[in-house]
Amino acid sequence: MARFRPHSTAPVPERAILVGVDLGRSEWSCEESLAELARLAETDGAEVVLTMTQRLDAPVPKTFIGKGKVEELVSAVRALDADVVIFDDELTPSQQANLERAVGEPVKIIDRTALILDIFGVHAKTHEGRLQVQLAQLQYVLPRLRGMWSHLVGEQTRGGIGSRFGQGESQLEVDRRLVRARISTLRRELERLERRREVQSKARWDSGVYRVALVGYTNAGKSTLLNRLTGSDVYAKDELFATLDPTTRALELEEGRRITITDTVGFIQKLPTTLVESFKSTLAEVRAADLVLLVVDVSDPHRELEISAVRSVLEEIGAHEIRCVEVLNKSDLVDEAELREATAMHPDAQVVSALDGSGVRGLLYRIAHEASLGSVSLTVLVPYEKGLLMKMVHERCQVMRESYVQEGLLATVRADARMAATLEPYVVEESS
């Protein structure tokens, strides 16, 4: 007989109860929104044991849900031994405190915003990403300081959902003044990083490199598509918010033009305002793009709602006027009838499967076509002593014909407006 009995060291998933209120005001049905909330909870390591809903004309000021539903919730928490209750809509600090008193310790009461912030806290890897998440978390915590702070201290050792707020702080027993001071410090640091990013973005603009940004609902397959297009190995996984930090990779099109493609943070409906504000420097990569590829999971039954949510965020960050091409991804997961229906609704979209590579060549052709819009044909003679300009011709133009003559490089190219202006002094013959 074994002397010692082995014990599993794997973390035990927290048992979560989801609560949604149908107010009849959203494009998303209450059931659809709760299904997404369940995926978020599972992404954060929880096991959903029950989903509760209530139809109301307006949230109850004191507890968000009605008195009878609160009693039902308390009974369910005890019967199912739940660890956390997650509300699909944002709770006010007083509503959260009242619900915590009703349910009793050690059960946690959090909302959708807190859950998303928690996931971001786990997945942010870069220095800037962590600063952005800290800022969003502290802005969320500040008005809840009186009701939450001791609760957070108690959760520091237990861990789990809703307990990672204020990551990077050496102590949690801080007052409002210290939290505000930390928020100010984070904002200054992020402003410094944003200025540096703007300098880098301006350098790319001055270089004339065509910039493409991938945007889309979380888990639409942006990172997988980036890997497929550029041959890189960006982390990609079938889960919500698998990657948060922007990644830029270079790509050379068949015509010889070099472009950059940037993968950005995934969007979601009811994206917390604090997160949009905190991630503005990251989302600046989208605003600075020449072309936006809106990646859509064509197999998702909620794709139209997701497209609407993404376009809403693009408008919120001031990127809605940038040229945008929809990319219907994951075509390998749908049958021909579903694909025909999707393409009928989005006739200008590119259909691809980032996983098996189908349609990617057509997408590259479309990118090349978009990059060439507004280009003009020029025949130029670049002297040999202008070596940098020769390099720019090969990297930034579509070279249709070239030869090396005694005076330098004689080439017929298609160039965008910026490059055409640079080459103007060397034009020897203009083509239509």
UniProtKB/TrEMBL annotation:
Residues 176-203 form a coiled coil. CDD domains: HflX (cd01878). Keywords: Coiled coil, Cytoplasm, GTP-binding, Magnesium, Metal-binding, Nucleotide-binding. It is found in: Cytoplasm. Its cofactor is Mg(2+). GO terms for cellular component: cytoplasm. GTP binds at residues 216-223, 241-245, 263-266, 329-332, 353-355. Mg(2+) binds at residues 223, 243. Transmembrane segments: none annotated. Residues 210-375 form the Hflx-type G domain. The keyword Metal-binding applies. InterPro entries: G_HFLX_dom, GTP-bd, GTP-bd_M, GTPase_HflX, GTPase_HflX_N, GTPase_HflX_N_sf, P-loop_NTPase. GO terms for molecular function: GTP binding; GTPase activity; metal ion binding; ribosome binding. Belongs to the TRAFAC class OBG-HflX-like GTPase superfamily. HflX GTPase family. NCBIfam families: GTP_HflX (TIGR03156). GTPase that associates with the 50S ribosomal subunit and may have a role during protein synthesis or ribosome biogenesis. Monomer. Associates with the 50S ribosomal subunit. This is GTPase HflX. It comes from Candidatus Olsenella stercoravium. The lineage of its organism: Bacteria, Bacillati, Actinomycetota, Coriobacteriia, Coriobacteriales.
